[in-house]
Structure formats: structure tokens, C-alpha cells
Amino acid sequence: MSVVGSAGPPPERTGPLHDEHVALGAALTPFAGWSMPLRYSSDLAEHTAVRAAAGLFDLSHMGEIRVTGPDAAAMLDHALVGHLSAVGVGRARYTMICAEDGGVLDDLVVYRPGVDDYLVVANASNADLVLAELVARGAGFDVAVTDESAVTALVAVQGPRAVEIVTSVTAPDDVAAVTGLRYYAGLRATVAGTPVMVARTGYTGEDGFELFAPADRAVPLWRALLAAGAPLGLVPVGLAARDSLRLEAGMPLYGNELDRTTTPFDAGLARVVRLDKTRPDGEPVAFVGRAALAARAEAEPARVLVGLRGLGRRAARHGYPVVRSAGDLADVVGEVTSGAPSPTLGHPVAMAYVAPEVAAQGTELAVDVRGRAEPVRVVALPFYRRPAGAPAAAPAPLQPTPAPTLET
Fold first, then answer.
1. So what's the pLDDT on residue 1?
2. Which residues participate in substrate binding (predicted)?
3. Residues flagged as binding site
């Protein structure tokens, strides 16, 4: 039987650089409703290029939501767990939007280009939800919440040669400002003839930039960066290497380390929850989820996010059970959230939620890898830090502590 007007699964969305990826021979994959490049050459080659030189990433699937108006700072203090009114103009902050029960709806980076102007960057899979929540939480505030995702392209250059590459196509009058840009800061500049917001942020553990550009200027910007960077070792990088890079850097991925059942405290990210933020009159900000998160801050954790160093050759993967010892696969004490071989370190690494009593660094456990116990050791996160002397490129690292502590 056929039904007139019936439809199959919705088509995958494509970004402004889709044809560029096809022309480069990328293997495409569905991701959060988008068709995205998984790899262009090999996962290892792309990962290694970012650590040794630079990689070029298309992040145009991310959501960009503008919050403007006289009450923008106060509204975001109410809507998010962070203290956004304390962010200086030109700076950015990693934060989260939580439900009333403290569960993480998404982790975000929020930029403050102007006094009454914020740009909220959400994960692609949660962009619609974040937009709806910000609109709802903005009721009663003098703000405008605008979805700019469709008209915004986002590309990133990450790696030790990122500064050299980006400034080589930056307008001469902007080169000094871009070169001196602090980590988690952004500014307006002209790059490859395109007006962009250049932010010194990223998701790889390396130095680098993310460039927010008009969608209709994405192609010339991409091509200019690729041409300028190729002689210096830059390559386009897909989702696979992006995941192994962020895993080595100990950075959480929504849907793995973070989800609706997880609070920031569970993930070792207590520092992003500002229970101490106050309004100008000195009264505490009653932000969404505050009561639940305040209670969670005082409670003993039921599980702790830790790093695991593989002592064998087979890598643990998302969802694999963590067991107390190789001799008893039934004695489950946790679950892997992310895992892969580490191209940089030469051994498997993983992040996992485990019971507090086995969370201490140095504890030897095992992971059930398809019925076979693979030995692992609990280690500090992140697994990888780039060489001393390079600018900081990650928020304060996750720490596998057995009890929650409030940090910055």
C-alpha cells in the first residue's frame, strides 16, 4: 500500500562547504542530521598533521544564537550555569545549559562581542533545543534571541602553525591583534578579504583559531586558508581525527561524557557552575537548575569521570564495561564513554565513569572488550598536553577527583 504524501527519513543537511568536501574526495557521514566529512585521506595522517603542523576544520554545522539587548547579561546569568555578566567584552567562556534537575542539556561556548551582545555556540545535535530554551528563559527580559546558524559559517585552523597560516591571509592592519589574541578571546578582523570574528578557541588541545564568517563567504575563506597552509603542512581534517584529537586533550563530547542524565559535577566540571553569582543588588542569581546543582555540590558522587590508559593493544570503545579485575568480567564498576588508540601517545586511551572507590590515579582495572579483559590504569586527564611554552588551549583539565569541588 502506498500513502500519498508519505516521506522517508529527512534528508541530511549540507553546509556551505559541502561541495568543497566532495571536490577534495572526503568520505561523508551522517552527523547530527548533517552530511559531514569523516576523513579526507586517513585518520592517522589528519590527526598527526594537527599535532605537527595544522588542520583545517569545517564546523559550520554548529549552532550560533545571538542574544542582544539591555538585559542580555542578566538573562544569560539566569539561563546558564556560568557567570556570563562577568565575561569581559571581547572574551568568551565555556559553560552549560542545564535542566531544573541539573542534567546537562548542552555544553556551550559563549562569546561577548559587545556589552549587550553575546554569541552562544551550541552543538549541532542540540542547537534547536538550546534556541528554544533560550527563548523560553528570556521571557520577562529585555532581550532579542536570534538564530544565526543558517547565515554563519565556522571554520577552524588548529595546530602549532595556526598563527602563521591565519595571519598570512589576514589584513595587514589586523595581523598584530590576531597574533596577540588571548585564549578564549575574539575580535573582528578581515581574513582572506572576508569580515570575520576570529576566536582563539578550539577542540583539539592545540593552539589555533575559530573563524565565524558569513555563510556566503565560506568558500573563498576555506580555499584561501587551504592554499596558504598547504606549504606549511596544513591538511583538511574530518570528524574522525577531530574526535581522537579531543579525546587525547580530555575534552568532553555531548552524548558521550555529557548528557541529560549527567550533571556538571559528575563530569568533573564543577568549575563551570557558579553558585556564587549575584545580581547587581547583591542577591544570588536564581538560575535554572541552581537548587539541584547546589544539592549535588554537597553530595557524595555516585560516579567519577576518569582517564584510562590502555596497558594492552586493543582499545576500549564507547559503552564497554569497566570491571574491577581481569579475572571477573561480571564485577562491573563503570562504563567507557569514549575510547580509541592514541596516535600521539602510541597506546589506547579512554574516558570512563567509574565508581568512586576505584577512581584514584594508579588504580588498575580492566575493560570488557567484546568478552576479553583488557588491562587499563586510571590516569589524570588530559592524556596529552602540548609542549611547554605554547599558549594554553583547553579549559582547566578535567580531574578524576573522588569528591566534587567548586573551581573557577
1. 30
2. 210
3. 210
